[in-house]
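Run log // design_07
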């Protein structure tokens, strides 16, 4: 019975909050605020009167199948943690049918149930054995694996969930990537345009980037103390010659989406001539670098173009996730609830995620899923293929369409809740090393 004392503490803490919530509920609208648990206060009388009267159903739930352990949740359809619990209860109900009875009672529609079960807060989950004896109760959001762990502590081992339809995955490319290595950006895997090629010399040979931006991101991720821009060169946009990055001048323009478009030149005259044609501003390396590194990922600190990034709001402030997984990681790094907006990789439609205590509280559209770009290492361990291979999709159908159109992509479909929970499990040390070249080096 190791886990139970900890769980009980949560209940006690939640109980302390109850008074405050109860007071608040009297003076505010009935729509409850987000929180671990809501006080069991029925909607205001005025509001209740508008609702369809619910017949006074017998409080005791229908008799469970003979001898089955029973999980009863008392909640309400409008309470935020209760809404988060609903899919979990549905899953338990179907996955453990015949092993466990799962019930939900709405105490705002059926207030007598709250009294009957003696609950103070919602959601409250009560565990009963097969004879109907109460074994344990918990208040607030209760993740599925914790519910199963609690049952196990109580002596009921339901085993792991029966295999569901396997989520979509692909571990071997449908077609190998046959592009020559020096035509592929080391960081983003994009094609390298000869006019924007940026090269970093390393003891192991030259590393090529599609543009100065990918070089700037990589440089920021290097953990080598002795790193220096002296090892890097850009390409003169018109002459095609190599120019050390710190000696070049940069024409900083903008594409039709507002994303920076950068052209490098050996000298100011050539840059000014191009500026007269295409607009923009001419910067020295110092000015260019300052602009490039002004916005950073709120999880891994890498420089980002906001136009490429997911927007994350945390505590009323805005930051970015350089990829969707990093955006979720802001919840782990800050320990706070976040609201993030990403775009469907295939269609560009917005996908928003609101978290509550390390779990997904709201997902819009609810059908949205994540593609975890990954590969299996020789031991079969799943390894991320990096930020540029991660994405959200509004539906599984969009994800499959995108994967089909990208024969080199490997990885697997995960739920956004799974992706968030994986981030929440990272230690502060793992977070501080996230996306650093050397700790998470590309192939
Ligand atoms: Zn690139
Ligand atoms: Zn990041």
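design_07 sequence
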């Amino acid at each position: 019975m190791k886990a139970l004392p900890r769980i009980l503490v949560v209940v006690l803490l939640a109980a302390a909050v109850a008074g405050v919530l109860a007071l608040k509920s009297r003076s505010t609208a009935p729509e409850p605020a987000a929180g671990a648990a809501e006080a069991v206060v029925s909607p205001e009388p005025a509001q209740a009167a508008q609702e369809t009267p619910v017949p006074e159903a017998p409080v005791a739930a229908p008799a469970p199948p003979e001898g089955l352990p029973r999980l009863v949740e008392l909640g309400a359809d409008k309470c935020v943690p209760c809404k988060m619990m609903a899919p979990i209860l549905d899953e338990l109900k179907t996955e453990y049918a015949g092993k466990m009875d799962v019930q939900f009672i709405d105490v705002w529609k059926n207030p007598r149930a709250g009294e009957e079960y003696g609950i103070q807060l919602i959601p409250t989950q009560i565990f009963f054995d097969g004879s109907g004896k109460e074994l344990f109760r918990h208040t607030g959001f209760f993740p599925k694996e914790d519910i199963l762990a609690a049952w196990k502590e109580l002596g009921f081992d339901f085993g792991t969930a029966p295999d569901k339809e396997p989520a979509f995955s692909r571990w071997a490319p449908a077609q190998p990537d046959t592009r020559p290595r020096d035509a592929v950006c080391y960081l983003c895997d994009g094609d390298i345009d000869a006019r924007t090629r940026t090269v970093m010399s390393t003891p192991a040979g030259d590393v090529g980037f599609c543009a100065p931006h990918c070089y700037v991101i990589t440089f920021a991720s290097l953990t080598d103390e002795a790193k220096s821009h002296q090892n890097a060169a850009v390409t003169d946009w018109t002459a095609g010659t190599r120019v050390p990055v710190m000696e070049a001048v940069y024409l900083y323009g903008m594409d039709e989406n507002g994303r920076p478009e950068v052209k490098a030149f050996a000298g100011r005259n050539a840059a000014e001539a191009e500026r007269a044609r295409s607009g923009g501003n001419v910067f020295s390396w110092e000015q260019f670098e300052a602009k490039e590194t002004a916005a950073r990922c709120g999880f891994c600190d890498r420089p980002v173009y906001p136009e490429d990034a997911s927007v994350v709001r945390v505590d009323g402030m805005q930051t970015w996730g350089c990829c969707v997984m990093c955006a979720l990681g802001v919840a782990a790094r800050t320990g706070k609830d976040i609201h993030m907006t990403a775009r469907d990789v295939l269609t560009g439609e917005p996908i928003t995620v609101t978290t509550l205590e390390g779990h997904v509280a709201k997902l819009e559209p609810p059908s949205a899923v994540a593609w975890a770009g990954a590969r299996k290492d020789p031991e079969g361990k799943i390894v991320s293929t990096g930020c540029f291979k991660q994405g959200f999709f509004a539906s599984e159908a969009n994800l499959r369409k995108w994967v089909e159109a990208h024969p080199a992509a490997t990885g697997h479909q995960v739920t956004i809740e799974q992706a968030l929970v994986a981030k929440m499990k990272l230690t502060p040390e793992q977070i501080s090393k996230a996306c650093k070249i050397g700790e998470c080096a590309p192939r």
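The pocket of zinc ion (ligand 1) is lined by residues 185, 187-188, 190, 209-210, 214 (CB under 6 Å).
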